Amino acid sequence: MIIGSHVSFGGKGLLGSATEAVSYGANTFMCYTGAPQNTLRKPIDEESVRKAHEYMQENGINPENIICHAPYIINLANKSKPEAWEFSVSFLKQELKRCEALGIKYIVLHPGSAVSHTKEEALENICDALNDIINVDTKVMILLETMAGKGTECGRNVEEIKNILDNIIFKDKIGVCLDTCHLHDSGIDLTTFDEYLEKFHELIGIHKIKCIHINDSLNQLGSHKDRHANLGYGKIGFNNLLSVIYNEKLKDVPKILETPYINNYPPYKFEIEAIKNKEFDDNLFKRVEDYYKNL
Ligand code: FE
Ligand code: FE
Ligand code: ZN
Fold first, then answer.
1. Which residues are within 8 A (CB) of 144 and not within 5 positions of it... i.e. 6 or more apart?
2. What is d(CA 93, CA 96) in angstroms, rounded to the nearest whole number?
3. At what angle are helices 82-102 and 46-58 packed, to 10 degrees?
4. Is 262 helix (H, G, I), strand (E, B) or coil?
5. What distance lies between CA 241 and its chain's CA centroid?
6. Cα 83 to averaged position of ligand 3 atoms, centre (Å)
7. Is the pLDDT reported for residue 225 higher than 90?
8. Ligand in closest contact with the CA of 225
9. Is the CB of residue 209 less than 8 Å from the CB of residue 165?
10. Confidence of residue 24 (pLDDT cuts 50, 70, 90)
11. What's the chain's average pLDDT?
12. Residue 171 main-chain phi, psi, to 5 deg
């Protein structure tokens, strides 16, 4: 199983991210190349990247499985302020270069929010942007994340994701990242996840799934809210999440936890343990607090 969580990139960059991942017993991770909320980015220095890769090799992390996430404020769907759209496009181009310099193969992207556009226009804007960003030399694969459908979010169902993928010129440089919380909030009942996968396979092809975000959801099926919960502490439930995590058809796909911190402490070490044990941790909150308080 390839499992990890999102980790920070601050201070020590990729080496810091990898060190944090190892402290959780993870064999992969997802990071941003700076703060997730903004687009301020520091230059990447080669020597520190080399050290990070050396550390990963010594600690059982295959760099092929690590994932980057683009900042939230990038919106390729909305062209109503052309400068903002242009900025998103040029930022993503640089972000792909940064991933390449870091030796990261995949970057997860929220397709974008239509705002005042119709859904058709918004999807077209996304494709225009992606076709500008992705070219024959692109070495990093963009993974469109399946979204909860909050507000005017695009990518809220398989059809919308397919619509984008179908219009990308370099199809082998684009893939999909599922997010269990988003699927549930968009109206997919994960007790019948296999049916969803079958539909996904018919319309898009299961081989396009390159990453899965594993989160429980605070809200009910189809709520379109997008509030993540710790595993087993939400409306999806631990066993339904396990059935996604241990799905045979997705066994080589990296699984990334994006569950909330517990009183400012990361829950991932214990959530990963629960996944490996296939057993719900009904004492997660206390265990996390006790562990980090005494560290
Ligand atoms: Fe995301
Ligand atoms: Fe996600
Ligand atoms: Zn989310």
1. 109, 111, 155, 161, 164, 165, 174, 175, 176, 177
2. 5
3. 60
4. strand
5. 16
6. 26
7. yes
8. 3
9. no
10. very high
11. 97
12. -65, -25
- Number of other residues whose CB lies within 10 A of the CB of residue 162: 17
Query: From the CA of 136, how far away is ligand 3's center (Å)?
Result: 31
DSSP 17-58: HHHHHHHTT-SEEEE-SS-TT----PPPPHHHHHHHHHHHHH
Of the listed ligands, the closest to the CA of 218 is 3
- Give the number of whichever ligand sits closest to the CA of residue 108: 1
111 touches 182 (CB < 8 A): no
CB 104 within 8 A of CB 137: no
Inter-CA distances, 55 with 15, 21, 47, 48, 58, Å:
7, 11, 12, 10, 5
Retrieve residue 136's tokens: 């024959």
Whether the predicted model's global pTM rises above the 0.85 cut:
yes
Beta bridge partners of 213: 179, 256
SS3 for 141?
A: strand
Tokens of residue 126, six digits: 């996304």
SS3 state of residue 145? strand
- Residue type for 58, please? E
Query: Distance, CA 179 to ligand 2 centroid (Å)?
Result: 5
Helices and strands of the chain, counted as H and E runs: 10, 10
What's the alpha-carbon Rg for the chain, to the nearest Å? Answer: 18
For residue 78, how far is its CA from the centre of ligand 1 (angstroms)?
A: 18
- Amino acid 36 reads P
Decide: 230 and 181 in contact? Cβ < 8 Å.
no
